[in-house]
Amino acid sequence: MRTGFFQKHQSSVSAISDNLAKELEDALKILLNAWFPRCVDTKNGGFRCDFNHRWKPCGPQLRMLEYQARVTRTAAEIAMLPGFENYRDIAQHGFRYLKDTMWDHEYGGWFRLLDATGTALESGSKHSHGASYALGACAAYYKLTADPDAVNLAKEAFAWLDNAAHDPEHGGYFGLCQRSGKPILTADQNPRSGIRDFLGVPIGLKDANTNGDMLQAIGDLSEVFSNALLEKQLHEMFYIVRDQMFVPPGALHVYFQPDWTPVPDVTRYGETIHKANQLAKASSRLDLESDPKTQGVIKSVVDMLLQYAWDDVKGGFFCAGSTFGPACFDRTRVFVPTKVWWHQAEGLRALLRMAMLYPDDKANYLHRFEKLWAYIKKYVIDSRRGGWIWIGRDCAGFSKLPKADLWKDLSHEVDSLSYCIQSLTSGSPNFVSTSASSLAKR
Fold this sequence. Notes:
The structure is a single chain. The chain is mainly α and 442 residues long. It is built from 13 helices and 13 strands. It has two domains: 1-35 and 306-442, no CATH class; 65-265, Alpha/alpha barrel (Glycosyltransferase), CATH 1.50.10.10. The chain has a three-stranded antiparallel sheet. The radius of gyration is 21 Å and the shape is globular.
């Protein structure tokens, strides 16, 4: 367990830790059993992504890099936990697909989208967002297996991204790239047509989603190999996220000009708390856990969202709106009151972290954590068929949404549950991975 900044009087959390950790572990096992081996495609390779609300296969089963990488990383990270070793073969299945099929063996880099048979779509374009998750998958698989193919592929992919998407002048990463490895900065080059890429990012701008995920990916890589460039980019991305993306009173800018001048847009509450979680994870890797500025930024995000994006009646985080909650324009109320499954997952881990760090804070993070977990159990978890539903049952429009598609995998909820289990078990909000593979190869 860590000491110092994190060794606070955590009696309130400790009192519930054993029973709650067991409850969360049971929920994790049920979740995993809903997904595996159901999504494993033994015929075409990779993972199937299209399942309706009854878990029946449907749709074209396209292979998007984000989905394939997230499921692979999830299986690898779960396989490192005691009692979950049987997920090792699933992680290997996913890694081989990333290496053999999704990797462009002619130009380098990972394809963004393939059809079910492995044919590249959208002119073979590539994107830093999906690549960041694939880097994380390689790192997790290497920590699990010490397979040199994994770390070598990660090194090659990181070098490709640095050449293709990194901005040497202003720092950070552009998203969409041509197959040959050049960033797509004008709408006429967009393989999907229009002024936005598939993430919804206006062509030519940088975005918080891609760059926050790159911070996490580079941090993951730093656990399995290190060089001067990787260390430089890790520090660069940390300070971009902390000092450029976040602004008082705990808000997140979403889009930016290449020089990091922010471009106004709506506030996405789930994205905001996700970036705060990624910043917290990176701060541990950079030994900045006790840095007042960093911790102040993270705390301000959670406090702000509890004030303007939290449902005081039923619990749960709303989706989007202005920084200060619902806003009215010419008698039109602008607010998205749905409660998306992954926003609740990210909120769960953020609230537990705050409860462990600030047990006496007036925000009463532990109470909010317990209320959010109760909300998830009642409205988000499908106790009949397994899995988490897309939108909470207390929201309009939740019925019959798919259990999985290109953008709905199990990574957020698995990450959150495993984080909470390990935090409660270790007594620390920033526990340290002790994978034999990762320690042996540093």
